[in-house]
């Protein structure tokens, strides 16, 4: 069960090698979490992540999970819940894709959409039902500010996150009053290892900053969290800019 501050003792991470998810797991372990499941495709990276969390004092196990195989989600994730209650599920998997290449290759574009949206829908419904059955828990969904308004530079990725964001909000409404809390997290550009070397972007953030915001959101039982917080005002303004002007902005 959660502690007096609403922080979890057990968590399941969907996307077990995500830098944001691992930063969050480290932070929650420091706050008292003792059981961690890392779900992802079997790989040395997944095992290394699990071993690292074990050195921090958490009983950490891995489970094979493939976002692109929705028929396997019930069995793979259901297995975790049979081992004991889960206080927090962090849905953190997703791919950026490559807009320039994906526009010319519809198969690649569809893979982005299937991973970020349809895979998340399948997994999200499975874990939501399991949380509801046990009568408590939180589902934290990593969305993105890219889903707030489609940009020429990344509309394939952005559209997949827009779908995910809408799904998570609707799921939160459906679970209201059941004891299950759903929180959507909308980071801006996150400086991860995968994006090292790219030009600096205003209001960029880090995995550790997102983890801090997730912890605060859990304590407050927030329904939506922006990282950094100033992005909420920025995106509110951008949503209302006329489309003819929006096209000219260097976004």
From TrEMBL:
Pfam family, one: adh_short
Keyword Oxidoreductase: yes
Annotated GO MF terms: oxidoreductase activity
Limits of the Ketoreductase domain: 9-190
Presence of keyword Oxidoreductase: yes
Alphabetical keyword list: Oxidoreductase
CDD domains the UniProt entry points to: SDR_c (cd05233)
InterPro entries: KR_dom (IPR057326), NAD(P)-bd_dom_sf (IPR036291), Sc_DH/Rdtase_CS (IPR020904), SDR_fam (IPR002347)
Family, similarity comment: Belongs to the short-chain dehydrogenases/reductases (SDR) family.
Name of the featured protein: Short-chain dehydrogenase
Source species: Streptomyces yokosukanensis
């Amino acid at each position: 069960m959660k502690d007096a501050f609403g922080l979890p003792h057990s968590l399941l991470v969907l996307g077990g090698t995500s830098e944001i998810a691992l930063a969050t797991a480290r932070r929650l372990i420091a706050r008292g979490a003792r059981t961690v499941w890392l779900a992802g495709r079997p790989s040395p990276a997944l095992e290394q992540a699990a071993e690292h969390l074990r050195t921090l004092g958490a009983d950490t196990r891995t489970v094979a999970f493939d976002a692109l195989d929705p028929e396997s989600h019930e069995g793979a994730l259901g297995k975790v819940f049979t081992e004991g209650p889960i206080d927090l599920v962090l849905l953190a998997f997703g791919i950026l894709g490559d807009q320039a290449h994906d526009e010319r290759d519809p198969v690649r574009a569809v893979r982005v959409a299937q991973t970020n949206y349809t895979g998340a829908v399948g997994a999200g419904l499975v874990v939501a039902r399991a949380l509801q059955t046990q009568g408590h828990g939180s589902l934290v969904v990593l969305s993105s500010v890219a889903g707030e308004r489609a940009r020429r530079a990344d509309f394939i990725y952005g559209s997949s996150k827009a779908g995910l964001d809408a799904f998570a909000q609707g799921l939160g409404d459906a679970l209201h009053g059941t004891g299950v809390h759903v929180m959507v997290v909308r980071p801006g550009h996150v400086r991860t290892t995968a994006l090292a070397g790219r030009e600096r972007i205003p209001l960029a953030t880090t995995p550790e900053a997102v983890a801090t915001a997730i912890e605060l959101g859990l304590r407050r039982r927030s329904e939506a969290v922006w990282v950094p917080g100033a992005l909420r005002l920025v995106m509110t303004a951008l949503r209302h800019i006329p489309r003819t002007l929006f096209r000219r902005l260097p976004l």
